[in-house]
Amino acid sequence: MTATPFPVSEIVAARRPHRKDAARNYDALLGAAREAFAEHGADASLEDIARRAGVGIGTLYRNFPTRRDLFESVYADEVNALCRVAVELADREPWEALTAWLNRFAGYMVTKRAVREALDGESDIFQSCRDSMFAAGGPLLERAQRAGAARTDMDFGDLVRMVAGITATAFEDDAQRDRVLAIALDGVRTTR
Question: Measured between alpha carbons, how far is residue 4 from residues 9, 125, 135, 142 in Å?
Fold first, then answer.
């Protein structure tokens, strides 16, 4: 896999401030929002997010004038991180690379659900994020298929839907979710 920029990378770079202190606050707000959305869903308090980030509410609004701006930025940042992970995993053994990425994808789905609730899906960012995710993860599946490690009667869209379905289910804890995901991925794997 090459380091070709994904569409979402450009969105993330364009939104991130250039000054170091402003970029630090922006990153802290994204991290705090990600945590708050995972814990409280789309109704997470903006004041709580600012407090978690160690900044004032004015700094939050300077970076994200609307709640939607914050949701979109968190979503784009998460997808951008998934794309970077796919590139980092490209040198690993094909099955290991694919499953490592899918496990990261499963964790991302928790945040995505909260953000998706708040957005209507009509955002241009959603399409760029989807395109980027398929461009990052699709080659990992194709590589595992060429190596004979993954079944060839499926495509990346099938795999994403399977993992998304699993992560949409309520689990007792992350360990149970990881076990169920591992069981499902055993159905994708062709070699043992």
Answer: 10, 19, 10, 18
- Written as tens digits, the pLDDT of the chain (192 aa) is 445 567 777 778 788 888 899 889 999 999 999 889 888 888 899 999 999 999 999 999 999 998 888 988 888 888 888 999 999 998 999 999 999 999 888 877 766 666 666 665 566 777 788 888 899 999 999 999 999 999 999 999 999 999 988 888 888 888 898 899 999 999 999 975
| d(C-alpha 33, C-alpha 60), whole Å | 10
pTM for the full model?
A: 0.80
The span from the CA of 14 to the CA of 119, in Å, is 20
